């Protein structure tokens, strides 16, 4: 089932302005060939000032087509024709709190019905200038026709180009096969051969927050993904401890704001022992907090260190037992 | 009032007996059937039993002809790819325009790789032209893949006749029988069918298990290579619990076969008669005289299927539609298109598919619920007037199409 917003459902279950307007003086009949939906918009326009006095719709179509039609009639009532024409299909979708990408064409149909009705009122002939094709990229609702036109106009030759020009393929990337197939055809049409990009791992920008790192896990080449921070050369042990303390002090206000706190317990080589108290300890986010502290430490010290949270009470008991 | 489920061609409820049989294999009976020890051994025996049940349901000669897979689609892909790889000199596939995407999309892909694909057309009732079929059978055909029954209309194809024709021409024959198995009796032992796909969740077994029937002696190349499971024909640790569930479901399907073809069929017929009597401008699609006992597909003219489904859903009735808008692909149903149903009717097709769990009360409730929903949507339709379709609907409303 589609993930329709509550507003879409409301306009579908209880559509506003259903039916033809009596004494209409503007009629727009449009359809969307890709899914067979069709819409007749009737308007009653005041000839004096071109204000839309009443609007009604008749729709042969799915839930979102009916909802888009209902929304459109609500949006145009009271507006002048020129004001109404500034409504975009995105405005219709926004009015409905969004439409699934596959259903955006329903809002396009609404806007076109309006253009057609206005043209009809003004005695002009309305020609549809856009063509719909099979939906390729579902993340950004880009269809086959749009991709082909862009490839032709700009002589594109790679999936990356297509993404840069149209956004298609820039999301989940599952449509890359479809885009490649279009490229193969379009390149063949202009006498070229499509060459796919080499397989490559996507280089990610280094993450600032190392999320949910389990610190007890052996960390393989921990600093590899990180551009080596400028190592402050020749830091003495004292300077190093001071730096560590400074980092802890820097983050404490943040933790305290969440009714938590952090305390430095010990430093042993690359291991920095801290205690998390208050709302931080035992919280599911503790690992994330520790990861964040560790990241800051690494940046400040210019070396890899491990931040290890310690249960303070247990640590004290252990020390007593030893003593 | 509980909700009414009339979408059994999409998937079915797991039978409680199936669930009960599966449960121990999630907990104490967790062994790997390939293992020697008792943990594995017991599970191995349970698999054997399930295989026998499926063998019986299909009327297969040998239990080793049953290969468990993960789903109907995997069985279809395995069958077609195997036929191509085992006979590399043959470069043609025959199928139909009304197949499930599991076959159609694979064939389209193979076409892109240089294979020739013949798609048999259908007439207005969804029937194939066997003369056309006969003329296409040749030494270049690697495999014929034709569904036993259509998922949207329930129309049954003359599979035995077609398999015989293929066999006589020396061509491998595969049938996607996911909609037919469990609903109509099947006897493969003396049949010329080489391969058959079935899917567990269409017959009250869980999702995630399917079967490829492979007649002994049929040349075969696995899709998944690796371990020795399924005699090396489908590598990968068996989905033990689901397979055991499918075994029980197969036994239940056998036991309920008569019920399906009498009681369920009677409910379906009552539903059809009740709706058609109350709703004008509605008709049954497909071949009413030759279809699955549980399936009813009605086209409601001048309204759109998704809208019907949403309103049915609101009153607790689950069905499905061949309308473009419900598929996610925006393509109107290829089955309705192939039968030449005009789009003002094709978009308003609703499929009601029943199971042995449906009751006469439920059917009556649906018969009551449908007419007002259709009337409500027709009120919104530009093709509909006060009391019926507007005169010359195609001229009265002729929108500019984008």
Automatic annotation (TrEMBL), chain A:
[2Fe-2S] cluster binds at residues 137, 139, 172, 175. GO terms for molecular function: 2 iron, 2 sulfur cluster binding; iron ion binding. Binds 1 [2Fe-2S] cluster per subunit. Binds 1 Fe cation per subunit. Residues 244-308 form the NIF system FeS cluster assembly NifU C-terminal domain. Its cofactor is [2Fe-2S] cluster; Fe cation. Belongs to the NifU family. This is Nitrogen fixation protein NifU. The gene is nifU.
Automatic annotation (TrEMBL), chain B:
Belongs to the class-V pyridoxal-phosphate-dependent aminotransferase family. NifS/IscS subfamily. InterPro entries: Aminotrans_V_dom, Aminotrans_V_PyrdxlP_BS, Cys_deSase_NifS_bac/arc, Cysteine_dSase, PyrdxlP-dep_Trfase, PyrdxlP-dep_Trfase_major, PyrdxlP-dep_Trfase_small. Homodimer. Catalyzes the removal of elemental sulfur atoms from cysteine to produce alanine. Seems to participate in the biosynthesis of the nitrogenase metalloclusters by providing the inorganic sulfur required for the Fe-S core formation. Residues 4-366 form the Aminotransferase class V domain. Its EC number is 2.8.1.7. It comes from the Bacteria. Transmembrane segments: none annotated. GO terms for biological process: amino acid metabolic process. This is Cysteine desulfurase.
